[in-house]
Amino acid sequence: AKEPVRVLVTGAAGQIGYALVPMIARGVMLGADQPVILHMLDIPPAAEALNGVKMELVDAAFPLLKGVVATTDVVEACTGVNIAIMVGGFPRKEGMERKDVMSKNVSIYKSQASALEQHASPNCKVLVVANPANTNALILKEFAPSIPAQNITCLTRLDHNRALGQISERLNVQVCDVKNVIIWGNHSSTQYPDVNHATVKTPSGEKPVRELVKDDGWLNGEFITTVQQRGAAIIKARKLSSALSAASAACDHIRDWVLGTPEGTWVSMGVYSDGSYNVPAGLIYSFPVTCCNGEWTIVQGLAIDEFSRKKLDLTGAELSEEKELAYSCLS
Ligand code: NAX
């Protein structure tokens, strides 16, 4: 039998946490043969609710779940974890300045970075979900210098999956037959959902999405804004932000990272930029990646047309600005 993997979920008493922990305990994230021990962290005002989630996990009698740590102590939460899903953060409230929200999250991610660096398993893989996801991940990276930059990522898989979903609805094809969309840049409304290399599996082979949709106006307009604005549309409909889809995307992100992407398929992940595609180095930026043996690699050599170039630059500029704002919160 396999040794259990320790998975940390911060913000575990929140709504994404509530959707995510049962998925992890069922093997959706790491596979149906992989036992897990869940570490759940939240803040003291949420301690009682967190304990309620622990009670429900016990009550669900998940065969793969070998233990549950529910705590408000960040050191206890981080100790020995192999995977860390960072969902906890400070939400933007009405009337709050961007800088104030950034400052709260910078201080949370700075201290959690140190706790992970000192207490997590040495090869711990980190996924930041909490917004501003890319910049929180960058702060975590900066303040955990002994964790390899390769191990620190942020979630843009939800945006990637939303793009697959929109194409599948438009063409009336199975979502599993659509692949290789790309989310470039920030997990924000400046992200660029790119279908220029995306394909659909058809009875007569793989066909480019552009050839099948036959409507560049839609692909360059409404499709992009729908994906960019999907989070807001969910809030409008549900009066709550995306939770089950975010939890599912977090599982997809970790599963593909650990177990590998299928041959010929790439996915989108927010990763530390090395300057590929002339994206500024030193940002956490969403790229197309393939994964093998627990490591991601940015897909190289994709053609970027003029339309795309502008959009890659725009979302990169926003991330550079966020980085500056985050650093200004440190001093
Ligand atoms: P909730 O407010 O329901 O839950 C957040 C939880 O984090 C709360 O229980 C809170 O007590 C806890 N928390 C706050 N500070 C903490 C700290 N310092 N340490 C540990 N826990 C802490 O929000 P939810 O809807 O679950 O969303 C969580 C985060 O995900 C938000 O930042 C949200 O903006 C972000 N999202 C990111 C997405 C992505 O694709 N990257 C999509 C969904 C989501 O909007």
TrEMBL record:
Substrate binds at residues 92, 98, 131, 162. The keyword NAD applies. Residues 156-326 form the Lactate/malate dehydrogenase C-terminal domain. The active site is at 187 (proton acceptor). GO terms for biological process: malate metabolic process; tricarboxylic acid cycle. Gene3D superfamilies: Lactate dehydrogenase/glycoside hydrolase, family 4, C-terminal, NAD(P)-binding Rossmann-like Domain. The keyword NAD applies. Coiled coil: none annotated. Keywords: NAD, Oxidoreductase, Tricarboxylic acid cycle. GO terms for molecular function: L-malate dehydrogenase (NAD+) activity. SUPFAM superfamilies: LDH C-terminal domain-like, NAD(P)-binding Rossmann-fold domains. Its EC number is 1.1.1.37. NAD(+) binds at residues 11-17, 42, 105, 129-131. It catalyses: (S)-malate + NAD(+) = oxaloacetate + NADH + H(+). Residues 5-152 form the Lactate/malate dehydrogenase N-terminal domain. Belongs to the LDH/MDH superfamily. MDH type 2 family. This is Malate dehydrogenase. The lineage of its organism: Eukaryota, Viridiplantae, Streptophyta, Embryophyta, Tracheophyta.
